[in-house]
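Attaching the record inline, Q. Sequence:
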Amino acid sequence: MTFALPRGTSIKPALDWLRSRGWRAFPFQRRSWQAYLDGHDLLIHSATGSGKTLAAWMGPVIESLAYQKRPQPLSAIWVTPLRALATDTTQALQEIIVQLRSPWQLQSRTGDTSSHLKKKQLTRLPQALVTTPESLTILQTYPEFLTACSNLQVVIVDEWHELLGTKRGVLLELALSRLRTLSPELRTIGLSATLGNLEQALDVLVGTAAKRPRTIIHGLSKKRLWIRSVLPESVERFPWAGHLGTRLASKVCEAIDQAKSTLVFTNTRNQTELWYQELLKTRPDYAGQIALHHGSLDTDVRTWVEQSLRDEKLKAVVCTSSLDLGVDFTVVEQVVQVGSPKGIARLLQRAGRSGHQPKAASQLLFVPTNVLELIELSAARKMLRRGILEHREPERLPLDLLTQHLVTRGIAQPYKRDEILRELRSTYTFADLTDVQLEGCIQFAKNGGHCLERYDEFRRLEEDSNGQLQITSPKTIQRHRASIGTIVAESSISVRYLKGAKLGSVEEMFISRLLPGDKFLFAGKLLELVALHHSIAWVRRAIGTPNAVPRWMGGRIPLSSQLSQGIRERIEDASNNIFEGKEMRAVRPVLQLQQQWSHLPAQNELLIEQVHTREGYQLYVYPFEGRLVHEGLAAIVAYRLSKSRKITFSLAANDYGFLLHSRIDPMVSEAQVCSCFRLEGLLEDILAGLNATEMAKRQFREIARIAGLIHVGFPGEQRSSRHLQASSDLIYDVFTNYDPENLLLNQAKQEVLRRQLEWDRLQKTMTRIASHPIIWRTPKRPTPLGFALLVDRLRERVSSETLAERVRAMQMQLENAARSLAT
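Structure, as predicted:
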């Protein structure tokens, strides 16, 4: 299909403008403009800071210049994943409009836009709108907006890799399917910098019903990138997680002094606060010259930091992923990454925040928080040279979001089943939607399903005698608009004694994994979980030792499967005495001692170590598959071993392996442990080994919130977390008892497997282990690879003030043993 543009239309206006500024278009930009003018859907994949914005926006601008008339209202929509980026994006697009004297009027609309401007926009929509997936969905509940959509020529989706594989991405898919119904000639452009599955990403973006040509434009995939590491002056042969980073603060300060401006990335908000204080402690003169930036800070504070960075008033900003995407800070000369980013694409994305200009080089300084993270950086380098990036697997059939969409869809206009089914099946995510699934979601939207139909609060979607579905209640419309979206905040669980005294609260993710009888440390006390009821963890004082490892959401990002593969390759290199690059040479003493005391596994081997110490009996297993997979594996192995003998294991897991610890001799043989990795009965055993019911109940809260079965309240009057949890738990119990095949209930169980346990990856890991040889070793003491797992157990039993001292004593004992053996 080719658009009927005026004869002679070309990209010449864009080339003339660039030439007037002393610039020259990259080939991928020229190809993008021409493909757009030829009527193609596009996915532009190019390195961060290489000119993707220009490649996407110039096509519509050239087209409007060719017609020599003002575009119609709402001719273009630019979707950004973060509302914080809307202002920056609007400024960048507006500059192009002004420079080319194009007749476009451009505005932004996000959750930060004033209510006055929102009302004004509905009566007089701009020619181009910068918005987010949530705001775009809310706009589709207004008839005025839908009327203007007949003019829509193009939707541009920025940072598509961040939305793909998430429910926010599905929310956008559904919005796009509606826009394509209203404007059949609509073209779609996606922008991405770090994706491995480009063909699939384009399929998801344009849907299954698109008939126009589609093109992937490959841009500058190999932008100049300089990565260097801060190496510790001495390498501990028994490393443990997290302790090393701030010791290197002085070297980070030296790097900051050598650049005009620096972004210091950490992986968590707590680390951001810690590093900001550490830099000020190291260099008090930095006061007023550095700032911090993360998602929990007020919008005005974040805006001030961003503008101060642009105005060259700050030497450095310590930040999380809040500055990971899209924001164009040309002044930033280097990036510091504290700790392993755990993914190849994330490393590349963050490095691209520096040198954010087409011809500039990106510079990244890596600061390990554990010397073993140097292996991860080396593995990432190797994968980057091979052009390997992580895939983003699309979501399939999230029925909670479909239920929300059915209500959204019925606010502005009525619809019939066959109409909405065609629209839904035009999306990648709902291409396989069945009539039964659609009807089930319609019933949820109408009255909450047969279990809840007697309650008025669940009645939203109305059906008339002609089978048309719509919403007419003003209260329902107002309530639904306030609930649109997929972002659900993490909730906490209250911890109380059986007699009622409250100890505090912990995150749901931790407590939902515990079974009654499990012991854990909290508030300086050893507690036994008695019951988890109505979002309260009822406990009593206990004696003995803890047998559960606490986990907090966001604390640790698991390794990607591609980076895991790279690490296994680097470990195998080390087993063959190959240490490529200064990072691997720096960690050489650690790996050589591991080889001497135990073994360095090849890619096709699984190493298992059985160690007996004064602390008890330990079983270390090293699949190198990431923390989430290892937590699932640990639960499976512990459960299967405990079936043959009554025994209690405490578990610890990190990205390299997992540890089973018992106070008494488990008396297991190599053959028994090896048999625990069988695929037969895997699902049943992992659900039995973990508190699957509580995990599913927790996941159901998110699903119930998105589906509209519970309401968070209007802005400024949100309901308490405890109230929402109780409401969700009650609905979960009703469905479990009276509708066990409920679609949303089944979705919760599937999401537990897929998200919390990485089920697909877990199965692949088990298959890999089952087909490879297992190397069994019985070292006399914990080895370098196992030391970090041992420290994770110590965190349960010693305070943070004494942990470092205790670990140091253990390190000295092991170092002395290593020196004695060497002599």
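The radius of gyration is 28 Å. Confidence is low (pLDDT under 50) at residues 549-555.

More tomorrow.
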